[in-house]
Amino acid sequence: xxxxxxxxxxxxxxxxxxxxxxxxxxxxxxxxxxxxxxxxxxxxxxxxxxxxxxxxxxxxxxxxxxxxxxxxxxxxxxxxxxxxxxxxxxxxxxxxxxxxxxxxxxxxxxxxxxxxxxx
Length: 119
What we know:
Helix content: 40-55%
Largest sheet: 2 strands, antiparallel
């Protein structure tokens, strides 16, 4: 098990460009709690990513943006995510890669011990 120092000095932030601005993404405790409320847990989110990716992927990206009182993401809504991603040139494979990276960073051994998959 890593020490707190190992965890807090992890890799570079994961970013995405939305509405012309680079934004940091993090699947932290707050986002995980919101995912649990909305989806009932990470396993259900992963299932939705496979069956309904155009709904689930913007949702998780939105939840991972909304963190910290000093971060202004007020110009982004869950409904505007797809339009903003289109304007920024992302395709569905890019978005799946971003979400997979978020999950791998948050759960290095996978959800419930299984490797994360966002096929």
